[in-house]
Write a structure and sequence with these properties.
single chain, 434 Repressor (Amino-terminal Domain), 68% helix, 0% strand, disordered N terminus
Length: 427
């Protein structure tokens, strides 16, 4: 990994080179530093952890930074800034890799970038063959493009992607309205409209534009039914369940139940896992522990099911870690920290910081679970990490959750980590 020089990041040295310099100044090996830190904190720290910090494979969390600050006699704030610089470096490297991957994609004419807003645009006429005829290959081209755009959501917030997704949906809808095509092609196009409407709805939801989200989800529901795709229909209903839970003033159980019941007998296991997962969430947030546990069991069983048939691309991100995270979130909502903490910590340990929005969001439930367990200082440290990861995110959700945690922590302001967090929140 290329390292940032001390002239980069406003003159702040990134954490890896900084720790290496401090360690070597004291004549210590990585193994020696790990032993000293183990003695300081009272339980073992492996040499590999020090190595990963110095290479930026992992970045030290607030608790680790406090240990390092005490060990080296440097301010914690200096280490926090160094971690922030390293995090920006990692994100830039990922963006550079993504730009290289998109180069061929762009040259083919599938994406043009607006200088002012970075918006992807399709010219419908470019996908028409003769006259207004849409060839049988057009849905495949649009599907591939949609898959590429969908993966942006792994790394940026809805505020960055919403306009792009909305215009993409508008262009595909216009193409479908103006073109002439076979029934099979039309059915495939309607399925793509459903996928793109779900994308646009999700980005709007993530950006806090709930009315726009509802409109897109309703479009997705209608298009998925017109495409006779029960999996897409179920996913549209699951999105509506999330929205209902957020802004509807009540439970989204009815939508989540309808989503799971919409599935046909040949539904891919990953889709069944996803929609059972969504149903579990609605049950948990309604206080129904037994029903949530049952739905989580269905999701876990489905995600482990072997199949030779790949699931739909829109469910590519669903795996055993995502099911574990939802399991932890559900038990955190039900104030069962002994069941929530292991599930969340295990899965989040494999989450890279480049997925900062999701990691920050999920850490808020880990913080809540630790607070329920009486570990107030650790809950504050995790919430501070949410603040770190949320810097610059075009999503309202992580900081919205973090503010709820700050409010819960206020009665403990006499504790130094909580007091520091409250002061940071004011800024």
């Amino acid at each position: 990994m290329a390292m940032m020089t001390t002239n980069e990041g406003d003159g702040v040295e990134p954490i890896g080179p900084l720790l290496r310099r401090l360690r070597m100044a004291g004549g210590r090996t990585q193994e020696g530093l790990a032993a000293d830190l183990s003695a300081r904190r009272g339980y073992p720290l492996e040499q590999g952890a020090v190595s990963r910090w110095e290479t930026h494979e992992r970045l030290p969390d607030p608790a680790s930074r406090a240990l390092l600050a005490a060990e080296f006699g440097v301010p914690e704030e200096e280490l926090r800034r160094a971690v922030a610089v390293a995090r920006r470096l990692r994100r830039q490297e990922h963006r550079n890799q993504t730009d290289q991957e998109n180069d061929v994609f762009d040259r083919r004419g599938f994406m043009s970038v607006s200088a002012g807003a970075g918006i992807a645009v399709i010219q419908p006429s470019s996908l028409l063959s003769s006259g207004r005829r849409i060839g049988a290959d057009v849905p495949r081209q649009l599907s591939q493009r949609t898959a590429r755009l969908r993966r942006l959501d792994d790394f940026v917030g809805g505020g960055d992607t919403y306009q792009m997704y909305a215009r993409e949906l508008e262009a595909t809808t216009r193409l479908t309205d103006e073109g002439v095509y076979s029934e099979a092609t039309g059915q495939a196009l309607r399925g793509i409209i459903a996928e793109q409407a779900q994308l646009a709805g999700w980005a709007a939801y993530d950006a806090g534009q709930y009315n726009d989200a509802r409109g897109h989800y309703m479009t997705a529901l209608a298009a998925s039914r017109a495409a006779e795709d029960s999996s897409l229909e179920g996913n549209s209903l699951a999105f509506l369940a999330y929205l209902e839970w957020t802004v509807g003033g009540g439970s989204g159980i009815r939508f989540a139940t309808a989503a799971y019941e919409a599935l046909g007998s040949g539904t891919a296991p990953v889709v069944r896992a996803l929609l059972a997962d969504r149903l579990a969430w609605q049950q948990a947030t309604s206080g129904n522990a037994r029903e949530a546990d049952y739905a989580l069991g269905i999701a876990e069983e489905a995600i482990r099911e072997h199949t030779d048939e790949p699931g739909p691309d829109w469910a590519y991100w669903v795996d055993s870690d995502e099911i574990a995270i939802m399991t932890g979130r559900c038990w955190a909502e039900l104030h069962r920290p002994l069941r929530a903490i292991p599930a969340l910590e295990d899965a989040l340990g494999r989450y890279d910081d480049s997925r900062s929005r999701d990691k920050a969001l999920y850490l808020t439930w880990l913080a809540a679970a630790y607070l329920d367990a009486g570990e107030v200082e650790h809950a504050a440290a995790i919430t501070a990490r949410v603040f770190d990861l949320s810097e610059g995110l075009a999503s309202i959700r992580p900081m919205g959750r973090a503010r709820l945690m700050v409010k819960r922590l206020e009665p403990h302001r006499s504790l130094a980590p909580v007091g520091a967090l409250l002061e940071r929140a004011k800024g």
